[in-house]
User: Fold this.
Amino acid sequence: MKLILLGAPGAGKGTQAELISERYDIPQISTGNIIREALQSGSKLGKEMKSYMDAGQLVPDEVVIKIVRERIKQKDCKKGFILDGFPRTIAQAEALDKILKRNGIDIVLEISTPEDVIMERLSGRRVCPSCGATYHITGKKPIKEGVCDKCGDTLIQRKDDTVETIKERLSVYHDQTEPLIAYYRDKGKLATIESQSGLKETADLVFKALEAVK
Assistant:
């Protein structure tokens, strides 16, 4: 199964991708994680991407497309994959169509979440700079405030999780990524999932949509 998860930043795509990956034994390909690994490496490409992310902007299409093309060629993608954070523009979607050719995407899940919920989720998120573990100031607190349970490093708020940058990220999403909803709807690939208050309730809707296309 090859699928795409769409939704605004903080909609819960990453969490649902983890659950889908576990059930269907296919890899979650998060362009955000791949990009953050490049940022931590301090490479030339990482530094270039950092300037865009710090400002809440999208990394240029040609860079992201190259990353995704190489990733889906790997052996663990033979049974399928989950794209989380790609495509983000019509140009990226068209490039993906060319990469996959005849064996295209099976389904595109749009996770629809109210913006006030997104603001609360992202602005309260804290991450470990060492191991990547994620916490929340109200929803998923560490045992010791400000300290990672897994490795003991000090938790931080990413620059792209500040209120100002979240607003910019949402603006970019509406302008550049939201048109993908119509793009995939016209192809008959889109299923919209209304985010529920509970993780399990949302996951149940996700799996119901996936079972319909198996």
Q: What stands out?
A: The longest helix spans residues 163-177. The two ends are 8 Å apart (CA to CA). The beta strands are 2-6, 28-30, 81-84, 107-112, 125-127, 134-136, 190-194. The first strand starts at residue 2 and ends at 6.
